[in-house]
Write a structure and sequence with these properties.
Layout lengths: L1 H12 L32 H16 L6 H19 L1 H9 L4 H16 L3 H15 L2 H28 L30 H16 L5 H19 L5 H21 L4 E4 L9 E4 L3
Antiparallel strand pairs: 1-2
Length: 284
Amino acid sequence: MKIHLLLLSGLLLLQFNAFAQDDTLAPKPLSSIPRDERTLSTVPDKAYFKSWLTDARDIVIFPARWNKYQWIAFSGVAVVAVLCYTQDAYIQKVVQKNQTVFLGNFSSYALAPWGSGIYSLPALGILYGVGAIIKDDKARYTALKGAEAYLFGFITSQVLKQLTHRHRPYEDDPPNPYLWDGPFAPISNSSFPSSHSTIAFAIATVVASSYSKTIWVPIVCYTLAGLTAASRVYNNDHWFSDVFVGSVLGYAIGRTIMNNHIKKLKILPVSSTGMGVTLVYSLD
C-alpha cells in the first residue's frame, strides 16, 4: 500500500514535455509590437497574470496529454522513486552518522533558504531590477516567470503534503519512513514531497531554460538546486525520496511554464532584410 501511495502521488507530480525549448526570445525593444501580440511579458500586466491560468491548468492535467515517450520517462522516474523509497531508512542513518558543525551550518544558512524563497525571491527581484535598468527584456521576463514557478511549486507541494501526511525523519524514534497518515490526518507539517526541492528546481529550470545558451547559467542553477535538495536530507528534515520526487516535480513545473510561453509562431520587430517584421515558425 505504501508503494502504491508513492506511485499515485508521483503520477500527480511528474511531467516530461517532449517539445524542445527555444532560447531565442524576442529581441529588444518590444515597444514596436502590439501588447496583445507579444510572446513575452516583461511587466506584471493582465497578460502575465492570465498566463498563470493556462499554466495552472496544464500542470493539473498534464498526465492526460502525455505521449508514449513521456509515459516511458514517467515509468523510469517512478521506478527510481520506489528504489529511493526502499532505501530511505538506510540513507538517513548514514547521513546522520556523518554530520559536522560546519556542514550543518552551511546547509541550514547557505543552501536551505534558496528553497524557502528567502534567497531566491530577492535574487529574482534583483534580476528584474537589473533588467529594467539596462532594458533587458529577457531578464525581466525570466524574473517574472521565476516568481510564477515559485508560487506554483509552493502550492503544488503543499497540496501533496496534505494529501499524504508522511512523517518526517525527526518525528519518530526510531525514524520510520513508512508512516503515512493520508489525506484525513489533522493539518500539520508533512514530509512528502520536499517543498524546498520543488521550489529550488522550479526556479532553476526557468532561469536555466531562459539562458540555456549561456553554458555556465544552467550549471550554476542546477548545482545550487541540487545542493538545496541535498541539504534537506542532511538536516534530517526529509527522506531522500521526498527530495527526489520534489526535485522532479520542480523541474516539471519549470519546463511547463517555459514551454507554454515559447510560442511556435513569433513576431519579431525587425526583418533581417530591412524594415518590417519577421515571422519565425518553429517546427519543434
